[in-house]
């Protein structure tokens, strides 16, 4: 059997929400055949301009912490780099060096060691809950704790319970929010991407940070599309996340997610390539052919057949219950633009048959409508 001439993501539509390295992820997915729509969900506050971060850094220099908690590698490195830009890095390192240091995982540990620190403890699971349990078990009442956080905004914090529970246990918590962000500007490409999710115009949406997830949900609520976006993400638009921390805000809302084993951009692209065809394509035997229906095209015996939006809408309606008769009125209702003339249905079916390459794939049922001519063996298996 000859190798297919189409790429593995041919016919699939993927939304990319990344603020960093979006071009790289888009290129990886496009190279694999996907149609990519990219719009950054967040804009970052430049570290040199982050007055809140500088104020908290100076406060820790003046009054050193008893405990330092590093939660992300990039965040901790960014904090040290920002302090260096303000001419405060040596003072900050001296201040932090007096504290007990706890790391949330290997990336944070690597950043700590690169800065010359040694961690007291780090969980194997990269779990914030385990870090919290470790500290509470040893007692933190009266301790001054610097918690390096990543990706916060005034309206959203990635670890709200974590900070609250430290304070409830009697600690004086100084939150170090590195790489703070704001939602993308209104009425631009990001709004169009959110509306596209609500209208199920994508087969998958990729997330590389929890703030991007939060921004999508916040903007959907502002646009009055929260219910539609959540419904889409729970059904036809698959949320593909770089890792479990990124996925957590969606999981809390009952949205199914999937992630690669390694939290890397390339691994996410491979994960989407491997998983999306399994999640978002339908295969069936029809009139002696193998049909695979994707977001914007159909494969007939492994050959790509490009269909117009009208032809795709017609095919999706016929494939909703393969082999069942779909009336002309019902088909008219799914055609883009609607209409009242059943002649539009006849034209759509004719063009669909031509595009598929075999008129027998779609059968006419006299006085009733149309159906896919599914093979008997496939029909029995339904």
Quick take:
The chain is of the alpha/beta class and 382 residues long.
Q: Count every beta strand, where a strand is a DSSP E run of 2 or more residues.
A: 17
Mean pLDDT: 91
Distance between the termini: 28 Å
> What is the strand content?
15-25%
CATH fold assignment of the largest domain: Rossmann fold
Task: Describe the protein.
With 382 residues, the protein is α/β, with parallel strands linked by helices. The protein folds into three domains: 13-44 and 184-280, 3-Layer(aba) Sandwich (Rossmann fold), CATH 3.40.50.10090; 47-179, Rossmann fold (3-Layer(aba) Sandwich); 282-381, Orthogonal Bundle (Arc Repressor Mutant, subunit A), CATH 1.10.10. The chain has helices spanning 22-31, 51-62, 73-85, 89-96, 106-114, 128-138, 160-168, 189-198, 210-222, 226-234, 244-251, 265-280, 309-319, 328-334, 343-356, 376-381, and strands spanning 13-16, 35-38, 42-44, 67-70, 100-103, 144-150, 172-178, 181-183, 204-207, 238-241, 257-258, 282-286, 289-293, 297-300, 303-306, 362-365, 369-372. Strands 2-1-9-10-11 form a five-stranded parallel sheet, sandwiched between helices. Strands 5-4-6-7 form a four-stranded parallel sheet, with helices on both faces. Helix 3 (73-85) crosses helix 4, helix 3 packs parallel to helix 5 and helix 9 packs across helix 10 (226-234). The radius of gyration is 26 Å and the shape is elongated. The two termini are 28 Å apart. The relative contact order is 0.11. The mean pLDDT is 91.
């Amino acid at each position: 059997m000859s190798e297919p001439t189409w790429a593995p993501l041919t016919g699939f539509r993927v939304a990319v929400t990344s603020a960093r390295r979006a071009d790289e992820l888009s290129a990886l997915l496009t190279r694999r055949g996907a149609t990519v729509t990219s719009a950054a969900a967040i804009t970052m506050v430049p570290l040199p301009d982050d007055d809140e971060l500088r104020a908290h850094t100076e406060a820790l220099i003046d009054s050193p912490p008893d405990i330092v908690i590093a939660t992300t590698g990039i965040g901790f490195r960014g904090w040290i780099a920002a302090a260096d830009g303000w001419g405060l890095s040596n003072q900050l390192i001296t201040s932090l060096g007096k504290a007990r240091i706890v790391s949330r995982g290997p990336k944070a540990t690597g950043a700590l060691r690169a800065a010359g620190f040694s961690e007291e403890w780090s969980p194997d699971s990269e779990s914030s809950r385990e870090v919290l349990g470790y500290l509470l078990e040893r007692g933190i009442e009266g301790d001054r704790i610097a918690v390096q956080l990543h990706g916060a905004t005034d309206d959203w914090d990635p670890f709200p319970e974590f900070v609250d529970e430290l304070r409830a246990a009697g600690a004086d918590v100084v939150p170090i929010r590195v790489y703070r962000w704001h939602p993308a500007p209104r009425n631009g490409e990001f709004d169009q991407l959110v509306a596209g999710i609500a209208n199920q115009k994508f087969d998958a949406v990729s997330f590389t940070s929890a703030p991007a997830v939060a921004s999508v949900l916040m903007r959907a609520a502002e646009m009055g599309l929260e219910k539609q976006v959540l419904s889409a993400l729970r059904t036809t638009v698959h949320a593909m996340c770089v890792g479990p921390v990124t996925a957590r805000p969606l999981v809390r809302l009952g949205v199914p997610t999937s992630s690669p084993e390694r939290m890397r951009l390339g691994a996410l692209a491979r994960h989407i390539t491997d998983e999306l065809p399994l999640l978002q394509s339908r295969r069936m035997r029809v009139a002696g052919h193998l049909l695979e229906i994707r977001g914007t095209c159909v494969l007939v015996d492994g050959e790509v057949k490009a269909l117009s939006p009208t032809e795709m809408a017609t095919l999706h309606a016929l494939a909703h219950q393969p082999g069942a008769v779909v009336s002309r009125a019902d088909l008219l209702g799914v055609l883009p633009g609607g209409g009242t003339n059943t002649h539009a249905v006849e034209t759509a079916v004719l063009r669909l048959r031509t595009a598929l390459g075999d008129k027998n794939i779609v059968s006419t049922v006299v006085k009733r409508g149309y159906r896919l001519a599914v093979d008997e063996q496939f029909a029995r298996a339904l």
